[in-house]
Amino acid sequence: MSDHALSVVRAGALTTVQDLGRPGHAHLGVPRSGALDAPAAALVNRLVGNPPEAAVLETTLNGCTLRPRSAVTVAVAGAPCRVTVDGRPVAWGAPVHVPAGALLDVGAALSGVRGYVGVSGGVAVEPVLGSRSTDLLSGLGPPPLTDGAVLPLGPPTRPHARVDVAPQPAPPTELVLRVTPGPREDWFTAAAVRAFTSRAYRVSAASNRIGLRTEGPALERALTRELPSEGVVLGAVQVPPDGRPVVFLADHPTTGGYPVIAVVRTADLPAAAQAVPGTPVRFVPVRRR
Q1: Whole-angstrom Cα distance, residue 273 to residue 160?
Q2: CA dist 74 → 62, 96, 134, 139 (Å)
Q3: C-alpha to C-alpha distance for 230 and 232, rounded to whole angstroms
Q4: How far apart are CA 92 and CA 70, in angstroms?
Q5: Which of 147, 224, 125, 216 is nearest to 177 (CA)?
Q6: Distances (CA, A) of 67 to 35, 74, 234, 283
Q7: pLDDT tens per residue, range 271-282
Q8: Rounded to whole angstroms, how far apart are CA atoms 205 and 215?
Q9: pLDDT tens, 56-102?
């Protein structure tokens, strides 16, 4: 393998390769996947001089530790965390030079859930269906990182950004999700529909890249018969038998057999990627455009 590569010293709880995802394959049963917090992933690419489609690393909760085999420029964004190079603190949310062989440590999230590590040249694992993203549901793309793995890097294409620190939104203390009615809203009682948009929910610890699960009042169905599987989209709010809404995220299945009560605006989903378990959730109805 080329010297232009990253060695994974500590993989962390869940670190995956992500890019813009693989849209256009839902008819094959393949979800879009891609970075959950797309603006944060785009930011680290801009900071290190990568094009928007370059692959980055998405960390979960406790970061990761990497050792580049050649000198690289790195930027870390998303969930705020401590970043060090050979034990020395360096900037978070800004481009940082990391010499060959130095130890880059991306620490545990101080708030939020997911961090993004952009490296000059981008992570150059083999693409599958036009994307380098790890898809946890289908198993497409590279597997989650493990200790000792080596990731190839592409050649740098542009100079890094000249900024001290790039502004970023803070992880939410309350997750406000704007929703439009879903195709199966009429499968729920009028009281359940009112409760969905007026009662408080919280982010469940069972949430993952497939869906943000919630804890709160169960939604009662008006129709209890079986629903044949039908297509579902990013942001669909599906209600399983326990009655607690689940917001589908990047690795969601392309079909589902539980009714979809609403659909979340795409612009609100990056905040969902950073909502820690216990974060209050409100579903706010908005008119269709």
Answers
A1: 26
A2: 18, 5, 21, 27
A3: 7
A4: 21
A5: 216
A6: 22, 11, 35, 42
A7: 999 999 999 999
A8: 9
A9: 999 999 999 999 999 999 999 999 999 999 999 999 999 999 999 99
